[in-house]
């Protein structure tokens, strides 16, 4: 199962093409739109999110509410394109007009300069339009299809905010359904209501200062059986695939599973998860310090993965840079800005993690159509329960 996205931030539309989804999966546009609207919300978002509502059209691969097994095309139209057609249109323009509109001032923290150097673009808009985090809407669309597959198999995914700047949510013993409910009721998508106002306060302070702040997102996946992924090759380890997907999200700079970096200063006896057995449920772990993974494979415990998002680099208190044409120093321009996008990023991370888990399942089990996948998946669970 794979997908590609296409489109620019201020272009006509974003497009997601998904291949390998089993046939007969129930899928409606509302399933995708619900996720897209969640991504647009969250305390600290800028003006761009108020311009339009992200709603997709299903252009292929679905008939009468069910997938066909053929490629699925999801189109996300940019309603604001009418204001950008002269700038982003595909037709040639007068050379003098093009020169006047060129973006020649790279912004620190963005792909502007690196991308311009790599592709020899002397108008940096050719870089910034595609490298924009706007593209994550197309990835959320793909992830929403993955979440639909997982839900049919009894697997639930929840994304929520663990930390914004120096305000950290408490460790709370909650079911995954409770985590989903709390995050959905929170403006900052946290599961700790006692820290919500403090998170809002640091966002407001950053905005007032013309600055930005980052934070930590956590995703939990509940209901996964042991043995997803593989130890036999580096690129088949599921935790590796998830880690790569998380750091591929715009502005994400780190990832950890379970206790993660804390393992550097704990002993083995406080790090590993002891094994138990019950006649009804089979093997289980007494703790989940390793976040549901050993040897690149799931242990049957919930997958728990954290990602750290840096502060957004587009600031109302701009940083210094250098014009690529004149080589003169300047203060970086503002394309648009959120003071904090961590709440929205929790939705993005939730969906990219869901995609990797669903893709691993489709890769591991017969999956031409959903009943075939469900039967193989249930048989696998039963075999594991009586293993040995």
Description:
- This protein is α+β, with helices and mostly antiparallel strands and 388 residues long.
- It has a single domain, classed as Chorismate synthase AroC (Chorismate synthase, AroC fold), CATH 3.60.150.10.
- The protein contains twelve helices and 17 strands.
- Strands 8-7-9-15-10 form a five-stranded antiparallel β-sheet. A four-stranded antiparallel β-sheet has the order 1-2-6-3, covered by helices on one side.
- The radius of gyration is 22 Å and the shape is globular.
- The two termini are 32 Å apart.
- Its cofactor is FMNH2.
Helices and strands, in order, run as EEHHEEEEHHHHHEEHHEHEEEEEEEEHH
Largest sheet: number of strands, sense, barrel closure: 5 strands, antiparallel
Assign an overall shape. Answer: globular
CATH C-level class is Alpha Beta
What topology, given as strand order, has the largest sheet? 8-7-9-15-10
How many H/I helices?
Answer: 12
Provide the helix percentage: 25-40%
Q: Could you give the count of β-strands?
A: 17
CATH topological fold name:
Chorismate synthase, AroC fold
**Class derived from helix and strand content:** alpha+beta
CATH superfamily: Chorismate synthase AroC
Taking the alpha carbons of the first and last residues, their distance comes to: 32 Å
CATH architecture: 4-Layer Sandwich
Mean pLDDT: 94
Low-confidence spans: pLDDT under 50, at least 5 residues?
none
Total tally of structural domains: 1
- Tell me the radius of gyration: 22 Å
EC number: 4.2.3.5
Function: This reaction introduces a second double bond into the aromatic ring system.
Organism: Alkalibacillus flavidus
Pfam families: Chorismate_synt (PF01264)
